[in-house]
Amino acid sequence: MPEDALIIDLHGYTVYPGFIDPFTDYAIEFEYPKNEVPMKLYIVLNPAIF
């Protein structure tokens, strides 16, 4: 460790995984909003797509 490294004492605190990985949802109660827009089905006229 470098001699001039900043040391932060977190004794007594909790570090959540989101601090390290912002895309994690461990220990977080969150409900994603439901999609209220109806999905439209389109007819594909180009047979090369299938």
Automatic annotation (TrEMBL):
GO molecular function: hydrolase activity, acting on carbon-nitrogen (but not peptide) bonds
InterPro entries on file: Metal-dep_hydrolase_composite
Protein name in UniProt: Uncharacterized protein
